[in-house]
Design a protein that fits this description.
Distance between the termini: 65 Å
CATH superfamily of the largest domain: P-loop containing nucleotide triphosphate hydrolases
Oligomer: single chain
CATH class of the largest domain: Alpha Beta
């Protein structure tokens, strides 16, 4: 008896009677002699990626047991597509039915006509949610993370890689979480530019941390204008990997914590039009650690202007960051626990960098020694 393998198939339709096409595809899968135990999760409606003028999709995921080889299963899926009126026009075009081989056991396949795991499944919430409904412990054989973990990174969003925009990777987290250390390590690994927060050049910040609240607005505006200069689309190249040790959206976190009511009102009027001009990250790494550990690192590195920072302030910031990323919709967010990161281990950094490449444009990853525009 031929050995059977568990495979997962993504189904999608955005033309005609979408629900009927999905149901017919599931029925036709069930009728295949070499496929057994066809199970499907819930059908989800999603907005189309790419062109926004197309109809919404209905999507589902099916789990099958099959004795077919991967390429034979692909041909079976293509025959079903053809039988349901699928043509293969340009990318992102509408279609009656789309059947994608997502996973085939734990196999990793890299052929011109077949790549498994599906190379974009980790960017599609509708795929990951469908897989979670069938088996949330299922592991991605390349990324070595469960589909539940991968789904949490997207927070319900669906994303497409786009080499036309800067491949900005922002590292976020509390003061003392290790953002700058990790940013330096990854920048060296990618051979890409690194944009750091201008702490050492901000003339107001030491006085603000020392209690001179009347200078808080000056300090925040200094940071704001510096980051606007760093993250202006005119300063960054399309398709270029760039690392930052901050996420721009932290600006309002600190403004609300450090400014009084009048200062905040003035700051918000300045912030809103400028914020619309910055390049958005395509990926965020969110470093998490306890406020107690962050405070210890702050004391250990002994920057004079930081020694007035209190544990309560760090706890407040930690809550603000959690709220920010609980509601984040702009790009994938990978949460990393600082105590689990060995910054001195080159293999750890290399594995993390290889992992991150799957969230960046293929074209940008192929570039060597990119440079920030002057």
């Amino acid at each position: 008896m031929a050995q059977s393998t568990t495979a997962y198939v993504g189904l999608g339709s955005n033309l005609g009677d979408r629900a009927r096409y999905i149901a017919d595809a599931v029925r036709m899968l069930s009728e295949q002699p070499a496929l057994r135990s066809v199970e499907t999760g819930d059908v989800l409606e999603t907005k189309p990626l790419g062109r926004g003028d197309h109809h919404p999709y209905l999507n589902a995921v099916a789990r099958v047991r099959t004795t077919l080889a991967p390429e034979d299963l692909l041909r079976t899926l293509q025959r079903i597509e053809k039988g349901l009126g699928r043509t293969r026009p340009e990318k992102w075009a509408p279609r009656t039915i789309d059947l994608d081989l997502l996973l085939f056991g734990e196999d990793i396949i890299d052929l011109p006509h077949l790549k498994v795991p599906h190379p974009r499944m980790h960017l599609r919430s509708f795929v990951l949610i469908g897989l979670c409904r069938l088996d949330p412990t299922l592991r991605h054989p390349v990324l070595e993370a469960t589909v539940r973990e991968l789904a949490e990174r997207l927070n319900g969003g669906d994303f497409a890689l786009d080499a036309r925009v800067p491949q900005l990777v922002s590292i976020a987290g509390n003061i003392g979480a290790g953002k700058t250390t990790l940013a330096n390590k990854l920048s060296a690994r990618f051979g890409c530019p690194l944009l750091l927060e201008p702490y050492d050049t901000n003339p107001f910040m030491p006085d603000v941390y020392a209690g001179r609240k009347e200078l808080a607005l000056d300090s925040q505006l200094y940071f704001l204008t510096s980051r606007i200069d760093q993250l202006s689309p005119d300063s960054l190249s399309a398709g270029q990997i760039v690392l930052t040790d901050y996420v721009f959206d932290k600006e309002m976190i600190y403004a609300r914590r450090l400014l009084d009511e009048r200062q905040l009102e003035l700051y918000e009027k300045t912030y809103a039009p400028l914020a619309a001009r910055v390049a958005e990250p395509v990926l965020v790494l969110y470093l998490r650690d306890s406020a107690e550990e962050c405070l210890q690192r702050i004391h250990d590195r002994n920057r004079p202007y930081e020694q007035q920072i209190t544990l309560d302030f760090l706890k407040d910031l930690a809550g603000d960051y959690e709220t920010l990323f609980d509601n984040w919709k702009n790009c994938p967010v990978i949460r990393l626990n600082t105590p689990n990161l060995d910054y001195g281990d080159g293999n750890t950094i290399a594995r993390l960098a290889d992992h991150l490449r799957h969230y960046l444009s293929t074209e940008s990853v192929a570039c060597s020694s990119p440079q920030v525009k002057s």
